[in-house]
Recover the amino acids of this structure.
DNA sequence: AACATTAATCGTACATTTGCGATATACTCT
DNA sequence: AGAGTATATCGCAAATGTACGATTAATGTT
């Protein structure tokens, strides 16, 4: 049996990175963010037109991105407009850049 | 009802990024990679000593990282030595850098 | 007031992930 | 040969993720 050592908890960095990674762990959600990077904003219906999934499924993926903090929605009935949450996007960018040890120049740039 | 449009499939970039992101979607796996970046190599037992999880669970997380291509193992009985798979690490790094639009310098650097 | 529009949520089915203890494997050492 | 060591794999239970159709909610339009 192994000696009883002080076991290590996961760091905040590890937990936050994993949380963001989880949000990116489905192609649909990556595609939504790719789309939002190009278009700056979109409505749920735009994605339903483009992608081969049911409206309810797409809505669910949007919800996950929202809960992970990567996007935000502005209700404008009957539509909801989504865009990237820039603060958390920058945070995720920084976490991944640090993780991959990438030299990064534009992490502090504004939109 | 919405008009019947040509629905878009996910790009290879989106699928590959999602695959890597899935591998990074658990703090334990992020922690293993963090450890490997510092230590360059490790044995399964090192991780069992450090992290508060059962040996079988840690072995399973290692397996997932291996199957995602991010690490590779060299059997050296009774131990197995793991290290980062540099080719796929670079690939992942590039995918995430592109995704986040980060300027990166050292993507072409060697080990 | 009835209808149309857009999107979220519900309920359900199925698949995958996570964690653990127990067991199997493949050696080395005595 | 038998014991010890390190790790992978199995079998299971619980939790979570994925996808869909149906329903609900909130509004504007006729």
């Amino acid at each position: 049996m192994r000696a009883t050592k002080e076991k290590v908890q996961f760091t905040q960095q590890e937990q936050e990175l994993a949380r963001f990674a989880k949000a990116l762990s489905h192609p649909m959600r990556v595609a939504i963010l790719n789309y939002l990077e190009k278009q700056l904003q979109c409505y749920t219906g735009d994605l339903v037109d483009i992608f081969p999934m049911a409206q309810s499924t797409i809505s669910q993926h949007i919800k996950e991105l929202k809960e992970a903090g990567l996007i935000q929605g502005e209700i404008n009935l009957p539509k909801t407009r989504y865009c990237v949450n820039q603060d958390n996007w920058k945070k995720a960018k920084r976490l991944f850049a640090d993780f991959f040890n990438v030299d990064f120049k534009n992490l502090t740039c504004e939109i």
Remarks:
- The domain at 12-98 of chain A is CATH 1.10.10.10 (Arc Repressor Mutant, subunit A).
- Residues 43-45, 48, 55-56, 59-60, 62-63, 75, 77-80 of chain A lie near DNA strand C (CB under 10 Å from a C1').
